[in-house]
């Protein structure tokens, strides 16, 4: 039931492919084993300043290197990990892996300003979470100001009362917080104002038809204004064309990520790719640095 994909020559499950009951049982069994065998890894997608194209951060995206099926995408196994009660452990491992990678890039001379890690709202329910994140920062040595945690808007709003406390405790560590997939979750604006957020990420469903669908143009414009009025940075996800990027930066959206700039890639690939673009003076024939 795997689908051949050209990307990296791996077999991918299409994210939309539904999993049958028997297959699901197998996968659940495999997922427990995968925790023991540490089969999870992070891909990293650059986040850029839309004006300069400069690297302002990376978003860490979890992948499961399944021994038979190849690289599996999170929409397939994160909900499963939530159901099986494995998400707490998996989430902490991803935060730690990402923090360690940031320190390794520092060592290698690639300064990635910020690491964003996705958090499942289920993880926020755990009262130990802030202390566990603090421990990871301590262990790895990453400056808390360089860590951002992202939570999906729709899930957050369904648990808003609980979330406010959890987010405040995380905020107190000196990390930043982002609301992910914004625009799809029916946010109560009064809640939004009370949440200690730094960044609002416009859902990519509004970016897709930008400059071709006047309704999406208006929605994107309204979300950017709303975010700024509430004091948040605004980042657009899923940017695939120059037209979209130009529209967004013209409307005052300063940050973005998407296939136009880069697909998610392994830590090594990211280092190769961005070291080259960030240090043109190291390339032969480039003009000397002023
Ligand atoms: P997300 O946080 O909204 O991440 C962005 C998703 O959009 C990623 O899918 C990314 O590969 C994809 N993407 C980026 N640029 C483009 C583009 O230009 N066009 C299109 N069509 N897609 C783009 P991915 O990696 O499959 O992740 C899906 C979701 O899984 C994430 O959505 C996030 O909610 C969740 N997720 C990923 N890693 C983790 C994790 O470690 N923990 C938890 N709890 N959730 C995770
Ligand atoms: Mg995200
Ligand atoms: Mg998102
Ligand atoms: Mg999304």
Automatic annotation (TrEMBL):
Coiled coil: none annotated. It comes from the Bacteria. Residues 24-278 form the EAL domain. This is cyclic-guanylate-specific phosphodiesterase. It comes from Allochromatium warmingii (Chromatium warmingii). The chain holds residues 374 to 663 of 663 of the full protein.
């Amino acid at each position: 039931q795997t689908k051949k994909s050209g990307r990296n020559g791996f077999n991918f499950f299409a994210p939309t492919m539904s999993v049958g009951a028997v297959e699901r049982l197998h996968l659940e069994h495999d997922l427990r084993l995968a925790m023991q065998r540490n089969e999870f890894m992070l891909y990293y997608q650059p986040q850029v300043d839309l004006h300069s194209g400069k690297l302002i951060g990376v978003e860490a995206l979890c992948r499961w290197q399944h021994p038979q099926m190849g690289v599996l995408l999170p929409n397939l196994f994160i909900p499963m990990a939530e159901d099986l009660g494995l998400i707490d452990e998996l989430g902490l491992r991803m935060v730690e892996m990402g923090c360690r990678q940031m320190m390794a890039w520092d060592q290698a001379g690639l300064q990635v300003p910020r690491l964003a890690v996705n958090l499942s709202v289920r993880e926020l329910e755990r009262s130990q979470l802030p202390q566990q994140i603090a421990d990871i920062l301590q262990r790895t040595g990453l400056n808390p100001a360089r860590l951002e945690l992202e939570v999906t808007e729709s899930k957050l709003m369904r648990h808003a009362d609980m979330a406010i406390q959890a987010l405040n405790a995380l905020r107190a560590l000196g990390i930043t917080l982002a609301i992910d997939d914004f625009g799809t979750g029916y946010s109560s604006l009064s809640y939004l104002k009370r949440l200690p957020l730094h960044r609002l990420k416009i859902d990519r469903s509004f970016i897709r038809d930008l400059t071709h669908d006047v309704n999406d143009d208006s929605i994107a414009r309204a979300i950017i204004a709303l975010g700024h009025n509430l004091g948040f940075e605004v980042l657009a996800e899923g940017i695939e064309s120059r037209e979209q990027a130009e529209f967004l930066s013209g409307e005052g959206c300063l940050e973005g990520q998407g296939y136009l700039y880069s697909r998610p890639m392994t830590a090594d690939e990211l280092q190769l790719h961005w070291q080259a673009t960030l240090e043109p003076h190291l390339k032969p024939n480039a003009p000397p640095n002023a």
